[in-house]
Design brief:
Elements: E1 6-10, H1 14-20, H2 27-30, H3 33-46, E2 50-57, H4 65-82, E3 87-92, E4 112-114, E5 119-127, H5 129-133, E6 160-164, E7 182-186, H6 195-206
Parallel strand pairs: 1-2, 1-6, 2-5, 3-5, 6-7
Antiparallel strand pairs: 3-4
Helix pairs in contact: 3-4
Length: 214
């Protein structure tokens, strides 16, 4: 089976999951930590080179304080958990902002190897697509490889995006790296993650006709 080299993960549906169970919206974010770890182990076992998790955006921080604290804490825990694994970690986002957790500053700016390394893992934390593309305004228009001018330049081209929660939009997720990505939508909410969902996504991807516009 042909596997993607790099997959992007949009873990949507945490708040809807909590509300459907009569719980406050904020409680849903903590339920997304274990699925993130389980997915990493699947990616690692499959030999997929790189995975990017969509943590939270600059728009997300406009949500109520209790929700904001919940998803920030969940992201901090997720990064710390994977720092105990064999992984090359990188956090990408606007770090010079109060919305960026100081606990994650050591993981930003340059990729860091933990354990024996191997799988590249990226977390988008306090990320915004306009912020990411801002340097393009002053870049050389004759330059063909614009990825080098992105704030997310250390993140490679994405082959497959898997979005949980039933919605098919990108929501600003790495617009340049995602330009030729295939998008697979999982109807179940992120806290209801199962390995079978990833297996189906990979099976679906292996049947896609990847032409990159050619």
């Amino acid at each position: 089976m042909r596997l993607p080299r790099h997959i992007g993960i949009i873990p949507d549906g945490n708040r809807r999951w909590a509300v459907s169970r009569g719980m406050p919206k904020a409680t849903g974010y903590g339920k997304g930590i274990d699925p993130g770890y389980d997915l990493f182990k699947l990616v690692q076992k499959a030999g997929i080179e790189e995975v990017t998790y969509y943590g939270y955006t600059m728009e997300n921080v406009k949500r109520p304080l209790i929700e904001r604290k919940a998803f920030v804490d969940a992201c901090i825990q997720a990064v710390r958990i994977l720092s105990k694994e064999d992984a090359d970690l990188l956090v990408v986002g606007k770090t010079d902002s109060q919305a960026f957790p100081k606990e994650l500053l050591p993981y930003a700016g340059a990729r860091k190897t933990f354990g024996s390394g191997g799988t590249k893992v990226n977390f988008l934390i306090n990320y915004g697509w306009e912020w990411d593309l801002n340097n393009l305004k002053t870049s050389d228009p004759s330059q063909t490889d614009i990825i080098h001018n992105l704030k997310s330049s250390a993140v490679s081209k994405i082959d497959l995006i898997i979005r949980w929660g039933g919605w098919s939009r990108l929501s600003g997720f790495l617009p340049v790296q995602s330009i030729y990505a295939d998008i697979y939508v999982v109807n179940e909410l992120w806290p209801d993650f199962s390995p079978a969902q990833v297996a189906e996504a990979l099976k679906w991807y292996s049947k896609q006709d990847v032409t990159l516009g050619g």
